[in-house]
Amino acid sequence: xxxxxxxxxxxxxxxxxxxxxxxxxxxxxxxxxxxxxxxxxxxxxxxxxxxxxxxxxxxxxxxxxxxxxxxxxxxxxxxxxxxxxxxxxxxxxx
Length: 94
What we know:
Blueprint: H1 3-60, H2 75-79
């Protein structure tokens, strides 16, 4: 081989080495990132469970509350034009 071919082969070899190093770095980064995401999912799941337990404790000590009765009749319901249905603050029954 002549000197020109050796330089070309050397350049190709170096480029290949750089590409392989970059692939290695990316794969390491991706595996670290995936491990971090898995850990964060685990933390979030644990925190949700702790919050659920805390809410159960809070609600278990809370007194039972009654649903307030709607006493005033909805004038729009009487006309047949009330669109709020269950969300209406007024009664829809006689």
